[in-house]
């Protein structure tokens, strides 16, 4: 070997002052030249410190505020990371949900005849979030998901639950503003659970957006059919119907639980 690392170059290299191209050529030379390698001081403390700095930088990207909140609430790190990377967790979807709920509340306050609009729409919002949230076109962590041990149905459940939770919290904030008794104001909650779990069950046979569309369509058809039969659009939100939604949500959730843990 005719060329060796000069003392100046070695000093600059050790101080971390070389541009990447020159640093890499020094690396390459050190790799093949025992003489120059012997000139690199071996300090265990320095090596350990720089490795730890590197490790901290590569392995622990700074978590977002929402992710830190979830983790302080006891959500495991990998679940929190995937939840906060859910596209529906971004501002646009939340803003759309808030706008839809606000519009429905204002309409119902304008005329009680519009109350069913809020009750029928609230279960559609999490479905829309789930439908819009999946697939390579929209998902920034799609490649990561394809390689994660938490793949497939279990992952869909985790992220759908996150989407549902956000929609339920927002609707729960809006519901007390409705001109209706508390029981009726909350009549969207069990339908939300039932339609979301129905969508998840269908998604083992159909693409996720088609499942969401089917579950949402069934729900709206059911509301319209019950209203048409009895002449009262609130029929689908009465106590008997609520019992049905509760049972359906429970049974479908159990089915999903066994499917995922099978
Ligand atoms: Zn050399």
Task: Give a written overview of the molecule.
By secondary structure, the protein is an all-alpha fold. It folds into two domains: 7-59, no CATH class; 66-261, no CATH class. 71% of the residues lie in helices and 0% in strands. It is built from 15 helices and no strands. The longest helix has 23 residues, at 152-174. The radius of gyration is 28 Å and the shape is elongated. The protein starts with 6 loop residues before the first helix and ends with a helix. The model has no long low-confidence stretch (mean pLDDT 82). Zinc ion (ZN) binds at residues 1, 4-5, 29, 33, 35-36. The chain crosses the membrane at residues 91-108, 114-135, 156-178, 184-203, 210-230, 236-258. Residues 8-37 form the Putative zinc-finger domain. It comes from Nonomuraea guangzhouensis. Keywords: Membrane, Transmembrane, Transmembrane helix. This is Zf-HC2 domain-containing protein.
- What small molecules accompany the polymer chains? zinc ion
Characterize the main sheet.
Answer: none
Q: Which series of helices and strands comes N to C?
A: HHHHHHHHHHHHHHH
SS-based structural class? Answer: mainly alpha
Measured distance between first and last alpha carbons? 63 Å
Contiguous uncertain segments of 5+ residues = none
Radius of gyration of CA atoms, rounded to a whole number: 28 Å
Question: Tally the helices: what do you get?
Answer: 15
Strand-residue proportion: under 5%
Mean pLDDT: 82
InterPro entries: Znf_put (IPR027383)
Pfam families: zf-HC2 (PF13490)
Organism: Nonomuraea guangzhouensis
Keywords: Membrane, Transmembrane, Transmembrane helix
């Amino acid at each position: 070997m005719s060329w060796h690392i000069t003392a100046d170059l070695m000093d600059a290299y050790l101080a971390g002052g070389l541009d990447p191209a020159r640093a890499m050529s020094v690396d390459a030379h050190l790799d093949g030249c025992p003489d120059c390698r012997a000139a690199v001081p071996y300090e265990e403390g320095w090596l350990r410190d720089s490795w730890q700095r590197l490790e901290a930088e590569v392995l622990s990207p700074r978590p977002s505020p929402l992710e830190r909140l979830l983790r302080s609430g006891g959500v495991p790190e990998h679940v929190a990371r995937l939840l906060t990377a859910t596209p529906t967790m971004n501002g646009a979807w939340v803003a759309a949900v808030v706008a839809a709920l606000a519009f429905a509340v204002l309409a119902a306050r304008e005329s009680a005849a519009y109350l069913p609009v809020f009750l029928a729409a609230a279960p559609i919002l999490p479905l829309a979030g789930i439908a819009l949230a999946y697939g390579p076109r929209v998902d920034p962590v799609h490649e990561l998901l394809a390689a994660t041990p938490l793949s497939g149905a279990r992952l869909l459940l985790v992220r759908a639950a996150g989407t549902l939770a956000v929609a339920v919290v927002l609707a729960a904030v809006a519901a007390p503003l409705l001109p209706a008794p508390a029981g009726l104001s909350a009549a969207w909650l069990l339908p939300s659970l039932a339609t979301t779990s129905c969508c998840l069950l269908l998604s083992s046979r159909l693409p996720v957006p088609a499942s969401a569309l089917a579950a949402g369509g069934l729900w709206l058809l059911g509301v319209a059919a019950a209203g048409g039969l009895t002449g009262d659009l609130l029929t689908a939100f009465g106590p008997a119907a609520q019992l049905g939604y509760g049972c359906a949500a429970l049974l479908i959730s159990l089915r999903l639980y066994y499917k995922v843990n099978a």
